Amino acid sequence: MASVQTLHLPDKDAKLGCGFDSTCREVTKVQPGSLADQHGVAPGFILMSINGDDSLTGDIKEKLKARPVTLQLGPKEAKEVVTEASPHSPPEPEGVVTLVAMEGSLGFGVSAFPPGGDEDLGEEGGA
């Protein structure tokens, strides 16, 4: 299974080595031996973020040309579930961890701790 790749291009001499479709969101070709190829990027991968910004608004082509730049690319199956909290939503409780399965299951189970259950962890914080 292909995974999400983060590639950093530090200066103007750094080349990604792949082509994008007209929207600059999907990889259409990868040059053999290029940085993209070395990191497992393949045609069909999608651009997931530029410099940590996953909104992909504005002139994407110009953002791709800028240096330094950090890109996150992944297979189409690597869909993140984004939930937007309304201003009236209560804040998420401390200690909440969101896990995103790229494909299939995460491979482990999770059980809930009872309210106040952290007291049972002892002085050293448990696990």
TrEMBL record:
InterPro entries for this protein: PDZ_sf
Region feature Disordered, mapped onto this chain: 71-95
Superkingdom per UniProt: Eukaryota
Protein name, UniProt field: PDZ domain-containing protein
Organism: Durusdinium trenchii
